[in-house]
Amino acid sequence: MTLLTTLLSSTARAFVVQQRTSAVLSSARFMSSTDTPAPIMPHDDEKMPYYALGLNLAMQVGGQGNIKTLLEKDEMELVLEGFCDNLRGTSADPRIVLQTYGKELNSILQERSSRIVDLVKKEGEEFIQNFLDCNDEAVQKESGMVYCPMKEGEGASPTLQSTVEVHYHGTLTDGTVFDSSVDRGQTISFPLGGVIRGWQEGLQLMKEGGKATLLCPPDIAYGDAGSGEVIPPGATLKFEVELFKVAN
Fold first, then answer.
1. What is the pTM of this model?
2. Known active-site residue 168
3. Arithmetic mean of pLDDT, 102-113
């Protein structure tokens, strides 16, 4: 199997997975086709499959470390030029180019990534402090996690060995929703010991029937790595969590 065949095969599989995921989420949200207007396509139906392949490749490449956030507009144009030249077979030998400039490229990306992570962390610290100032009932734990009760429960509290059933709504500090069982219209069950530390600590403070807001700084969330395209490196996360059931 050639490298191009492998690339196209993996891209096709990723595209199918995304289609299936979209179908599941749409079903979970009970959305009809009339809820969201169809986007205007830039080409006719005969050409759009190839355009879709380009979009899929861009999503995979652009999502690695959120590379699109690291580059200026003119720099992005050079990236696209190199990408297209290589696909067309008109570029200089890519091995020589990478041997010559790869070290400098890595240095640029590492420096910019670090700068962005530090900025995101600072914004998270400011968000947490503002939340504490505005919510007298909120308590910050030694780990940095903030627990703010919204409704007190009366049932059992979970341990790390428990399986919990919850509804949750997760947002970034700017309000962007990155995951939400509430939006999907379905609760979710999972072993508490298998999730991020912020959830482990926060849910053990809750009781069945309770609801709370959890703020999780990066050290007890997804750290400097982030998670895919939806959670940036160094992000502070906000969750509204409702605990329905605890099974030990």
1. 0.65
2. yes
3. 90
